[in-house]
Amino acid sequence: MSVAGTMTRLAEIATPVYRVETVAPEAQYQLLGMRSKIAGPFLRETKAGAEISATRLNRVEAGDFIFSRLFAWQGSFGLIPADLDGCYVSNEFPIFRIHTERVVPDYLVYWFGLAQVQKRVESDCTGSTPGTRNRYSERHFLRLSLELPTIGVQRSILDKIEAVAQRLDEARRLRQEIQGDLCALFLAMAHRNDLSPAEKQAHGWQEVALSEILSQSVDDVAVEAGQTYAHFGIYSFGKGLFRKAHLSGDEIKASRLYRASQGQFIYGRLNAYEGAFGIVTKEFDGSHVSNEFPIFDCDETRVLPEFLLAYFSAPAVWEALKRQVTGIGGGAGNRRIRLKEGVFLAHRLWLPRLDDQRRIKSVAAKLDEAKAIRARAEAEFDALLPAVLDKAFKGEL
């Protein structure tokens, strides 16, 4: 199939539009964000006008072409779908109407997914200082040129791209489903909400306070100038630990850090109420945290850290801990309330037999494997789509 066409500047097929409205303090505004890798817009949040610092917003309509000035270099281009019609964006998101008699809008979106186009956009965003990024301007956008075949050829190319994209989406969905099923099993095994307290007791479970099975570890290290310290944090919502950049002793304000060891259980005081709990794995053995991250040794004759991770992965547990501090109604400033060790260690739970905990540990290993496989698959999918687009736009698909 010949895909030859006429070289056309975007200024000829895309017209900037402005539907600027003054922000009314009493009104509610649905605000959009933009995903990277041409994944398009999404509803980020709903805010009252009184909560918005901007005095004016731009209203979008279905079919608008939009990009993020700040993150165009990451491929933040897309179309407004019907279900986001009437939402709002700041002036950091230029909006265009596409001349559909000359170009199919989805064809233009996929064109921005081509590796060579993304490289050009990134080049236009490069700042004067190494590592910095400039905002991608409408001027840069409108001066780009692409080869436009006929509408019929564009639709044929789109059909082939979308057929492959659907297969990739289905593969992603299946991977996500497997991980979701394992995660649900992980939580269910730790809580067994299908059993009454009497039934749990009959199955060998014991009701205990955390202080009976955990002891706080205080392996503190004096901070020294000229030294560097491996450092990590904890994601919210049960997503585990993550590596941070090494800290320099010259930049650390605290006089002491705390060293973690493999197999210990840890949480973040500030965001425990959002699920910031984790196990110190081999990757983080010997790394450091501040005193905002209490660390505990498990009495492994009674409790395995994988059971605790499963137990503390449940949002109902996070909420129960919050109520212990803030009261049933919560209150202002909840997000800044720290979960102190005393409250944590006083928390009571049903502890299954070690045999049951070992089965939970086995599921944890399978869940970790599923997450790793999914991460590798996502990387492969991300690399595959640009190659698919390249072949499609050359007529080789």
Q: Please, could you describe this protein's structure?
A:
With 397 residues, this protein is an alpha+beta fold. It has three domains: 6-148, DNA methylase specificity domains (Adenine-n6-DNA-methyltransferase TaqI, Chain A, domain 2, Alpha-Beta Complex); 150-184 and 358-397; 206-351, Adenine-n6-DNA-methyltransferase TaqI, Chain A, domain 2, CATH 3.90.220.20. Helix content is 35%, strand content 23%. The protein contains ten helices and 22 strands. The chain has a four-stranded antiparallel beta sheet. Strands 13-21-18-19 form a four-stranded antiparallel beta sheet, with helices on one face. A hairpin with a 6-residue loop joins β4 (28-34) and β5 (41-48). α5 (151-191) packs across α7 (305-311), α5 packs antiparallel against α10 (354-393) and α7 (305-311) crosses α10. The longest helix is centred in the middle third of the chain and has 41 residues, at 151-191.
Instruction: Give the fraction of residues assigned to helices.
Output: 25-40%
Query: How many distinct folded domains?
Result: 3
> Which fold name fills CATH's third level, the topology of the largest domain?
Adenine-n6-DNA-methyltransferase TaqI, Chain A, domain 2
Report the β-strand fraction as a percent range.
Answer: 15-25%
**Principal-axis shape:** elongated
**Cα-to-Cα separation, first versus last residue:** 9 Å
Mean pLDDT: 91
The CATH superfamily of the largest domain is known as DNA methylase specificity domains
How many strand elements? 22
User: What radius of gyration results from the CA coordinates?
Assistant: 26 Å
The neighbouring-strand order within the major sheet is 2-10-7-8
CATH top level assignment of the largest domain:
Alpha Beta
Largest sheet: 4 strands, antiparallel
What structural class results from the helix and strand content?
alpha+beta
**How many DSSP helices?**
10
Stretches where pLDDT falls below 50 for ≥5 residues? Answer: 328-334
Under the CATH scheme, which architecture of the largest domain would be assigned? Answer: Alpha-Beta Complex
